Amino acid sequence: MDNEKLVRNWHRAIIKESQKRLGRGLTGEEKIFITSRGGFMALEMIEDTIKGLVGKELEEYLNSEKGVSP
Question: What predicted TM-score, i.e. pTM, was given to this entire model?
Answer without folding.
Answer: 0.90
